Structures
1.
Amino acid sequence: PPHSLEPISLSSLSLDAQALHNQFDELAAFSDSPAPSVTRVLYTEKDVLARRYVKNLMGIAGLSVREDAIGNIFGRWDGDGPELAAVATGSHIDAIPYSGKYDGVVGVLGAIEAIHVLKRSGFKPRRPLEVILFTSEEPTRFGMSCLGSRLLAGSENLANALKTTTDSKNISFLDAARSAGYAKDDDISSVFLKKGAYSAFVELHIEQGPILEDEGISVGIVTAIAAPASLKVEFEGNGGHAGAVLMPNRNDAGLAAAELALAVEKHVLESGSIDTVGTVGILELHPGAINSIPSKSHIEIDTRDIDEERRNHVIEKIHQSAIKITKTRGVKLSKFSIVNQDPPALSSEAVINAVETATRELNLTSKLMISRAYHDSLFMARLSPMGMIFIPCYKGYSHKPEEFASVEDIANGVKVLALTLAKLSLQ
Ligand code: HGY
Ligand code: MN
Ligand code: MN
Ligand code: MN
């Protein structure tokens, strides 16, 4: 095969589109909700089956596979310089309830296929290449987004918090991890990677927005990832009989939650920027009976912005509104906790250039853009230079079963990723 320092001949880039297409269908079958939706939650039986499926694909691609204490999975292809810091790529395969089969998966199956593409072309890496399946990117089970990549990036307080974290069924994180064969011992700080562990990290992902499809552009080159934050809020009131308690005598925790949800929308719209977003995706009432005044409410708020200050200001105002509601409605604010309040991340110029060159060599149109969704790349950026490659998805749909990316778009993304990895491996 040509020495690793020679550029790859583009004509040699061959991709097995049919195999890749079948893999999306096969992986989507590991789901706790009926097709075409996908539900695959951290450490559940379907998650474990899906992990096994991906580890098998890594083996077939000739990658040497290792797993860390919480189930981040690494597939490595050593090159001429095995002692050099590797170039890494990867994404997640966990899927929020009733979502689609491309979010995250494109960056895992696509990365493995990119390895095949490079091997078929006869490329020999100089820096090792590593494909990472991050143990869970979605906050579904334990309320923490990007659990795997946060820990790889060395989050001490998350490692401590996980010793006492439980899911909604009161199963502890460590017991859940152990049921999936991980976390042999309590200390999960073994997961932390050292800075410089990778020379670069690139993630392939669907855009989860409509811009590329609307503008007929093949590839998005991410310049920055928006700053995410999530809050958990609970109100308490006296509850009581829906017929017997007259309106002036009520302190309805359910209405307090409803008012706060509308306040989230108000504060976000007042921010003065279209880039500020806020969502109340979880609103639970206790006891949840039609004829019982809610005595407890639990709401979870997701708010993001590309401007961290502006986002933090919205959080302040949400907190003020929560306190005001306790006064006007006579309820108790029994919880107001900020689960995560992360800064944005900027992509590295070097990685952006490598992706841009790859799209040009492949004659693909591309566009610089920000990512409004968060990704494991947000935390990998704390370990090494980072970049992301977006491909179009149908009407920008994501986090719902109609999510779709065409084989052509996936193939473009895989080829851009393959060329980008090759360039970064030779640097
Ligand atoms: O919510 C997000 O931004 C990611 O898709 N989980
Ligand atoms: Mn199909
Ligand atoms: Mn997602
Ligand atoms: Mn994702």
2.
Amino acid sequence: EKGGFEHFMLKEIYEQPKSIRDTMTGRVPKDSHGIEFTELGWTEEEMAGINKIFIVACGTAYHAGIVGKYYLEQLARIPVEVDIASEFRYRSPLVDGNSLTIVISQSGETSDTLAALKEAKRLGSRTLAVTNVVGSSISREADQVVYTYAGPEIAVASTKAYTTQLLVMLMLAIYVGRLRGTLDIAKAHKLVEGLHDIPEQIHKLLENVDQIKVFATRYGSSEDAFFLGRSLDYAVALEGALKLKEISYIHAEAYAAGELKHGTLALIVEGVPVIVLATQPDVYDKTVSNLQEVKAREAMVIAIAFEGDDSIAKYADHVIFIPRTDKYLAPLLAVLPLQLLAYYAALTRGCDVDKPRNLAKSVTVE
Ligand code: F6R
């Protein structure tokens, strides 16, 4: 049942080329400049009437929501708020008939997310569910549904569901951006072309994991780790830290790279592993200067950067290269080394990877 893999988590990590391909099928026509969502059928008029988007979810799905905010704000130019479901449902959110509330849930059964969805509906919002389970409670409650086609996710730690959620959020942003005229044809076309390459690029990354195994073994004995990045890299850093905590029980924190000096820079001492994501061109130089700050404190720095970025090796102890792609697509690739680092660190520490302590696959109680 694990298809030759030692754990479901590893099997599911390796299923990502397929789950990404399946989630694109029919939605990213090869010769088209845009995205098709026949299940939505939204119109220009409808989209002109939406002035605010709320994205609500828990855990890993919440992290996908943070990426979704960047996508929707930058490509479709609509203000987006991202909320943790257990906060949203109790904070009297300012949701109304001109809002769209998007809930993201792999299982479609998470109780806080379902309650948040009901609250958004009660306040008059349009609602859309992004979920992996057909016929789930959340899919039945929402006005509309876009499915991720990750296939069943058995491991408690979410991997392939997360990347398909990122993909759906990007496709939605392209779709809405075209309807609202905020995204030009040439840029949409470039993104769509980039998407077609992603499954093969993931495959390529997953072929070459020896270096990651070595790093994971090395920092498996650490008690703390830090993940830094700016912009979309920060959103991915949050997920990297959660993955590591969940399955290896190494304490991990993600920081927006520029925020570290406003916080616990004092914890960055000799030998502490710091994973720095540096895939975003607009903030690249700033990120590299943050990298140098932690290096100056003798942290053990692993950078995640695009192939061909030769300069970063001067500053980091190690570099994990990911295939080149558009900045918006980078999260789909950059998270893979983080999933694998978490997996192999957990293995080194003898943890039960598929069933981490105190965690349920689907949280149906508050
Ligand atoms: C993390 C993880 C959890 C879930 C969260 C939401 O690996 O599995 O954080 O992401 O419980 O679950 P869903 O997406 O089913 O609503």
3.
Amino acid sequence: RAKELGRNNYQLYTESMNQKVLQRLDIENSLRRAIEKEEFVLFYQPQIDIKTGKIVGFEALLRWYHPDYGLMPPMEFIPVAEDSGLIVVIGEWVLETACRQNKKWIECGLEPHLISVNLSARQFQRSNIVEVIDRIRSSTGLAPELLELEITESTAMQDLSFTIDVLNQLRKKGIRVSLDDFGTGYSSLNYLRQLPIDTLKIDKSFVQDIRANSKEEAIAKTVISLAHKLDLTVVAEGVETKEQLLFLKKEKCDKAQGYLFSKPLPAEEIEKMLRDKKCFVIGEEVDN
Ligand code: C2E
Ligand code: MG
Ligand code: MG
Ligand code: MG
């Protein structure tokens, strides 16, 4: 009896393993065709200057409308895209689409804003990454100063001398660099000191747990003042409440991004915001 049960359990186990493998293969196959089938869309989330309440930039965030599963969150398919190498073409599509969109807004007569684009580890580690970025950026005609690239701490850490070299080349071309999800990786002060970056993004896990006298409050305060001493711009991500914003304002954090202001939105809705010159004051909208 026990033996039988054991065998059944084993069978169940392998069946669910198989299912996982099959689902992954299925995602990989449909990912392969997603670009040509135009299933990808970029959403844009505003970044707000905490001093003025003005929108100063946007982060481009990838969305996939899967034909069977519907809207798929990036965390579910980006790891598959990384493992299969598909992230390279997807990443190029993202970069081109974001640069082109930003250029289009400017051509419409809207005020220029910074656009931030996420680079994945595998995409960043390609030997020709600087040429690829430069070629795509210049083909869209977007000024390099209006493009910012986000890499995570763990991407930056994988090969420090390669990272420093690539970031130096990008910045020499006028492109800005941001260190994403700061605080979730190794956060070594030794490499922070060496990395040629412009911006530091405090991870939302710290921002969301900010409470008076909490450890997160102490960490956020320290990261903001450290970043300023290193001459970096600080962005807080995942800002959801007025209390969090007031704290960030008090600590002189430069920019904020989060649901308090806006969720990531399709380009058309962002365009409306820009036309209206939408402005925020400590979480409250004011008419301009
Ligand atoms: P990330 O780069 O750290 O992006 C911020 C994430 O936080 C986004 O999730 C955004 O929607 C979410 N977020 C913003 N404000 C709030 C808030 O107030 N509360 C909460 N709970 N969440 C907030 P999203 O769009 O699901 O993207 C998740 C991650 O997927 C990104 O994290 C990034 O690592 C990756 N990703 C997204 N688009 C791309 C892309 O085009 N290329 C690459 N390589 N990675 C991407
Ligand atoms: Mg990011
Ligand atoms: Mg982030
Ligand atoms: Mg994050």
4.
Amino acid sequence: MAAISMRNIVKRYGDGYQAVDNVSLDIADGEFVILVGPSGCGKSTLLRMIVGLEDITSGDMLIGGERVNQKAPRDRNLAMVFQNYALYPHLSVYENIAFPLRLKKVPDAEVKERVTEAANLLQLTEHLDRKPAHLSGGQRQRVAMGRAIVRQADAFLFDEPLSNLDAKLRGQMRTEIARMQKQLGTTTVYVTHDQTEAMTLGDRIAVLRRGVLQQVGSARQLYEEP
Ligand code: ADP
Ligand code: ADP
């Protein structure tokens, strides 16, 4: 059974603009899929429909085999990582990572265990007492990832997470995200307009153009064969 299954997904915005046109895609459990395509092709819209931040005009969205079209984002158990990190400036790194667990009233001991584990994985252990203002861009991005990790979600959804970083840091973070995903084995959908990112990350690439899914395959299948 696919972890995430999109069946004939269509999105028409209120003004009639069709941003996503009949997209069908199955994402396997533990798979890392990159959604790539030029700006405006509908990547973000598709990702937002997976998370539940955007209504689906027609088609079915299944998560773990269950139809979630009508389910609120909080009931989908997915973790989204945005490019602007959305960290709380007045909270420490520890509390920023712990935040989703605090909302769920997870007991302190378990919060500590999960935050410590995520911090180790992301090399943030030394920075737990700091405020976001005292972190580098890459460290802030790691905190945002830590927050996704502690939720033990069924899938990670990344929306252009590295676009605010410089080229060198982007390269480092790419490696880090790939390592983290392999280590955790969590199903991941990663949106980018950057072809290098698409080719170096992930198991499969899905190419979107003007709302239509044009090709799906490994980097090798899509970019190296004649
Ligand atoms: P991408 O993430 O690939 O850049 P988006 O999914 O953000 O693309 O947008 C796809 C298309 O839908 C774009 O043409 C965009 O202008 C349009 N669009 C996005 N959000 C809305 C909205 N709320 N209302 C109308 N059109 C929108
Ligand atoms: P208690 O047993 O009273 O929860 P802890 O020392 O475990 O005492 O933690 C107290 C609070 O301090 C925690 O709820 C958490 O918010 C925060 N905290 C715990 N460990 C760290 C840490 N390594 N860095 C920053 N804050 C922490």
